[in-house]
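INFO  loader      accepted 1 record
INFO  loader      residues=171
INFO  predictor   begin
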Amino acid sequence: MENTIYIHQYASPCGGLMLGDYKGKLCLCDWTVPVHFEKNLLRLKQKLDAETVNGSTELINRAAAQLDEYFNKQRKTFDIPVLFIGTEFQVKILRTLQNVPYGKTLSYAQLAAKAGCPLGVRAVANVNAMNQISVFLPCHRIIGSNGNLTGYGGGLEAKKYLLQLEGVNLF
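INFO  predictor   done
INFO  writer      dumping tokens
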């Protein structure tokens, strides 16, 4: 099929992820938490005018191998091609998010400032919440201005796990 998103489940130590490959680019690495995942998958299918097919691809296998290395503390950066989907503003935020270093956190306000839109904190938070490529686009590294963990598609326990894996000191 021309417009096909190949999807395959990945079992991480902190919850299930669904990996997706669209024409050789990672378009999905989303937590399989029911409501969050279903909403993101529907949005992705609509944006790409594509259907999903269960199956693995070379890209999905590479992404899974890199996730294995990440969860085993053998990888701090990823080199999988990612498909950015959204408006120009949303893609700008996602690209900025992609550059938040391993083991570091930013507040939503800091992410907004780095993206060049310091007054757009709420809009930046919304883009972060819609991120369908978790871990590779590290929305888990974005926290509240007061240092508290805030909402996360995989749940706060998964966010806490990822941050602790990266050596972030949580209080």
